[in-house]
Amino acid sequence: MSDWNVLLMGGKELPLWGFFVRATVLYWIMILITRLMGKRQIGILSGHNYLVAAGIVAISASRMTNPEHGLIEAVVILLFYSGMNILQSFLDMKFPGLIDRKPIVLIENGRILKKNLFRALVSIDELMGQLRIQGAHNPSQVAYATLEANGKVSVTKKFEYQPIQRKTIKLPETNVYLPHYLIYDGEVQHKNLEQLGLDIHWLNQKLLEKGISDPRSVFLAMLEDDGTLYISAGE
């Protein structure tokens, strides 16, 4: 049996270059099917998404190292897995709860729902840990804590424990920006300045206010989301 037949269909021995070819092909196949399955596969990772991701990794790893498994067989299985995952995601959008799990409320108005905890198989320690991560250290502060379909716990605090917003205390509105680099490693980012409607004169004035006369001495200057100019010296 030729080396190419072993590469494609499997056999007892595979030359070293064959393993390299298999690994390269399967790597790009995994990249392709990840793109086909969309950002949901990476960002949301619901139950069936997780199983497919684990299955794809396991199948690819075994086909890369075991010469008795053929490359064609591996590609067919991976494409089938991705197709089934796309179908399940479509069904999940059309019929919510039919394919994947529904959200489960764990805390309602400060009261821990014991029945739902057991249903979700979440311990008290795990729940308290998730609350602390969300900045709620006591269940009494929580209006709702919900175990989402992707396994994460979302927390909504009671009104009196929510952070104060500018509109709540009627402060004047201020501009909000996405963070933009204005200087990086001593080089002024003129394109970002233009996008923000600013110019080099404005930047130089701000630097002078901080006692900096030369932009080349700045490692990073960034306009933060609240309009504050963050400056880090080049030392």
Quickly list its features.
8 strands; CRO Repressor; 3 domains; single chain; 4-stranded antiparallel β-sheet; alpha+beta
How many strand elements? Answer: 8
Distance between the termini: 64 Å
Tell me the Rg in angstroms: 27 Å
Which class of secondary structure composition applies to the elements?
Answer: alpha+beta
Number of individual domains: 3
Mean pLDDT: 78
Strand % is: 15-25%
Q: What overall geometry do the principal axes of the alpha carbons give? A: flat
Unreliable spans are none
| Number of helices, counting only DSSP H or I runs of 4 residues or more | 9
Strand order of the largest sheet: 2-1-3-4
Q: Please provide the ordered H/E string of secondary-structure elements.
A: HHHHHEEHHEEEEHHEE
**Fraction of residues in helices?**
40-55%
Report the biggest beta sheet as strand number plus sense, adding barrel if it closes: 4 strands, antiparallel
Outline the secondary-structure elements:
Blueprint: H1 3-9, H2 16-37, H3 39-43, H4 47-65, H5 71-94, E1 104-108, E2 111-112, H6 114-120, H7 124-133, E3 142-147, E4 153-157, E5 180-184, E6 187-188, H8 190-195, H9 200-209, E7 218-223, E8 229-233
Antiparallel strand pairs: 1-2, 1-3, 3-4, 5-6, 5-7, 7-8
Helix pairs in contact: 2-4, 2-5, 4-5
Keywords: Cell membrane, Membrane, Transmembrane, Transmembrane helix
Transmembrane segments: 16-37, 71-91
Protein name: YetF domain-containing protein
